[in-house]
Each structure stands twice: as structure tokens, then as C-alpha cells.
Amino acid sequence: MSADKACPLGIITANSKKKLDPASALKLLTSKERAHYERVANFDEVEPNHTKANEQLNAFFEELARAQIKQSASEDTLIVQAVKYAQELDTVINRLFEQLFEWFSVYYPEAALKIESTKKFGRALEKVSLERNVIAKKLGVRKDSMGANLKGEDLAIIERRIREYSALISAQEDTKKYVEAKIRQVAPNLSAIATPLLGAKLIESAGSLRSLARMPSSTIQVIGAEKALFMHLKSKTKPPKHGIILQHPLVMNAPFQHRGKLARSLASKISIAAKEDYYNKGTTDISKKILKQLKDRSKSVSGGKKK
Asked: Which residue range forms the structural domain that includes residue 15?
């Protein structure tokens, strides 16, 4: 194998008369980085076409790869992972709720109908005994239920599962609080304009704040509506007007016929905010100005005026 093929970037050539040029390998590095990499690759002492040259270059690029991997694990990576975890918890909680609700309804259907939502169910039953007189007093339902009279061990297993279910709800709430706090640090403008949880979901869908900042606003507008977009491209159905940015109060609370226009305006402002947070590290607060522009845009759309 020739030296050109053996060495990354062809820094060592097959011509034995040419010396190894450290500048060609290190010219893109800062003085601090150069000092760091020279501890594994002393280019000045290496002769061309020598085994030691390849060994040191391999060490150099391995160290470079390590640094790049470490750098890629940025703050927004933590947001992406936390959002994914919260979404998994959402799925698990919804599935467990359906099963637990049916299970508890066998015992006390009147009480179950009072707490038929995921959070109410867990919070109402997590710290109380499942004795009917206790639940009846807490929820204001009849004590003489049409449900089955369960044995002690049957009731105990339901109690334990409800405790576990409640712990998952607590974990979900704790994770969402963490995400909200983290995105306010990492992307303050995006957080203020898109709302913290929606901003975090957009970063998670894009893969990183960098990817979101580089997206055109038209793509941001339909994040989360990939299936509808695919059907539009495949079957020529109507294109989606919005994706998960429908969750933003500005779009959600707007009349149906105005949602597309407001989603487009919101996506444009989200793009600006993401760019500011990524390229300028959120050092400039542009959120107040943009929020005012969005408010004015909402009024003009509702009033039927073009702006």
C-alpha cells in the first residue's frame, strides 16, 4: 500500500524527498489545539514514508475524532434526550392508565368515573387507602358500590400498581420541568417565542439546535406533519398547513381559516430565534420584539388585513 493511501489526507506522500509538513495537518487548528495534538503527534521529528509517521498521524486523527465527539455532546443534546424520554413516558402512562382504569373499575366503577384522566387518577389514589369508605369521602361518591367485593390480596395488588403509576407521572412532570429550565438556558429566544416545551420538541425533531437553525421556515412549519406531507407528495392531496407548531397558543386559539397564515408567520419567527440562539448563543434578547410582531400579525390576520 502506498503512503498516500495509508495516511489520512495524504499528508505523507510517496516521494521520499518531501518532508512531512506539520503545517498542512495543523493549519486549521488554534494554538491551544495545536499544542494539545502535538502531544500525540510530533510532526517535526517524523520522516516521510516511515512507519512512525503513520502511527503518529493515526494517533492525531483519533484524538481529533475524540474531541469532535466530545464537542458534539452539547447542551441541546441533553434537551433532545430528555424530550425523547418524556415522550416515552407519555406513551407508557397512557397505556397503563387504560389498563389500570379498567382494573379499578371492576372494584369501584362510580369512583373511577370521577377520575377518568391520567393525572387525576394517579393523584387521587396515590396516597389513600382503597377502602371504599375512604375513597367515597375523598371523591364524594356513594359508598355502596355496584363493583365487586375484592379480597385483601386483590386490593393490595391494585394499590401497588397505582403507586407505581403515580411514580411515573411524577417522573414525567420532573422531566418536563428539567426540559423547560434547560431550554431557557440553551435557547432563550426560542423558548420565549415558541414556548419552552414546544421549542424543546422542535429541537428534538430537528435533531439539534444547529439543525433547527439551518432549516428554512417552510420546513419548520410542517415539522411533525411528515405523514401528511408524504401523502401530499405521493397522492397530490392538500399539503399540511402546520405540524406540531399547532400546539402554540397563537395558532391553536386562532380561527381555523387563519391557522395556516399564523403558522407560517410563527415558523418564520422561530427560525429567526433559533438562528440567534445558535449563532450568537442567545446573547441578544430579540424575543420581546418578535412576540410583539406576532401579536400584531395575529390582529391583522383576524381583521382581514394583509401585512
From this structure: 3-72
What 210-214 contacts at long range (C-beta under 8 Å, 24+ apart), as own/partner pairs, is 210/76, 210/278, 212/274, 212/278, 213/271, 213/274, 213/275, 213/277, 213/278, 213/279
Q: Are residues 201 and 298 in the same domain?
A: yes
**Amino acid identity, residue 229?**
L
> Residue 165's domain is classified under what CATH number?
1.10.287.4070
Rg of the Cα atoms in the chain = 29
Could you tell me if 213 and 248 lie in one domain? Answer: yes
Helix, strand, coil shares of the chain, percent, nearest 5, are 70, 0, 30
Which stretches in the chain have pLDDT values below 50? 1-23, 305-307
| pLDDT for the residue 85 | 97
CATH number at residue 259: 1.10.246.90
Q: What is the pTM of this model?
A: 0.73
Q: Following CA atoms 245, 250, 256, 258 in sequence, which dihedral angle do they give, to the nearest 10 degrees?
A: -100
